[in-house]
Amino acid sequence: MRAVAALGGNAFAARGSALTMEGQFRYARDALRQLGPLFEPGVDLLLTHGNGPQVGHELVRVERAQGEAYTLPLDVCVAETQGELGYVLCRTLRDLFEGDRRARPVASLVTQVEVDPGDPAFAAPTKPVGPVLDEAQAAALQARGVVVREDAGRGLRRVVPSPEPLRVVETDVIRALLGLGVAVVAAGGGGVPVARVGGALQGVEAVVDKDLTAALLADALQADLLLILTDVPCACTDYRTPREQPLGPITAGRARELLRQGHFAPGSMAPKVEACARFAARPGRRAAICDLPHLAGALRGEAGTVITAS
Asked: Of 23, 184, 295, 300, which is most buried, counting CB atoms within 10 Å of its CB?
């Protein structure tokens, strides 16, 4: 079996707590221990991850260092945090593998994803990045032309363009590593966004949704399973309303119908459901949205939102 598992960037810190390196290593240990069934022999494993909070903190560092250090554009901030979380996950995986008989090599790959420079998303930023802002922080950013919006009940956050991923540049490298039995960490944060300009790839100011990139990469790698691991047990219709209903097993067609009806928040649950619907539209594939405590149940089809073709 070949599996792609996407860890949410917000999950690297408990809701309401500060983001720290110690906390990220602690989360990685707790999270990866629960991925045990995916470490079994015969399972090719690709791990990807979000990085919205980490990119936001990196942007804060860049802004506060103006005049003292060279400026980093957003695509480089994505690459920096890919390296950071790739290191956290690889070091933790290596420690886990060394403690049992399922040892395998581990590698993290800085990964680029190609987007269309004419994508309409560049004119309508939607993707939240960085920490939740208080009113003074939000006002200061807005005064400088930064777009700030409410993030699905979490609070005010900076939002940036999120164009559609077209191609993961390093797909062939990832495929080769998986073929060698390597557990791969790649496409973190949706990949470093690049666009073809004048025949060459060039970084762009955007953040690509990591779940859509995970689905694109899972399809290109002919994976059997796509896991979207987040901080809620499942997707829900009418989320945070008196009519809220958890979603269990559904078809890809039903998922798309619910998307059209507007049940899921843009930049939050909507891309997760869209990613799963895209991947699971072909027979023989499964996609699941769940949190880590419900992962084992989701793998059995007994928990989470499990999406299949029929």
From this structure: 184
Choosing from 9, 56, 86, 191, which is the catalytic residue?
Answer: 9
Q: Domain of 93?
A: 2-109+168-192+208-223
Residues in the chain: 310
Which band of pLDDT confidence, cut at 50, 70 and 90, is reported for residue 13? low
Q: Let me know if residue 247 belongs to a domain.
A: no
Q: Which of 56, 191, 210, 267 is catalytic?
A: 210
What is the reported pTM? 0.89
**305 backbone dihedrals φ, ψ, rounded to 5°:** -100, 110
Identify whether 127 is a catalytic site residue: yes
188 is annotated as an active-site residue? no
The per-residue pLDDT for 127 is 81
Mean pLDDT of 225-239: 92
210 in active site: yes
Give CA 154 to chain center in angstroms: 17
Among 8, 50, 56, 127, the one annotated catalytic:
127
Give the domain CATH number at 99: 3.40.1160.10
Catalytic one among 10, 86, 130, 191? Answer: 10
Asked if residue 35 is part of any domain, the answer here is: yes
Does 10 qualify as catalytic in the annotation? yes
Active site residue 118: no
Residue 123 lies in a domain: no
Phi and psi at 25, nearest 5°, equal -65, -40
Cα dist from 92 to 86, 96, 237, 254, whole Å: 10, 6, 35, 38
Number of domains observed in the structure of the chain:
1
Comparing 130 with 143, which gets the higher pLDDT? Answer: 143
Which residue is catalytic, options 51, 86, 188, 272?
272
Residue 140 pLDDT exceeds 70: yes
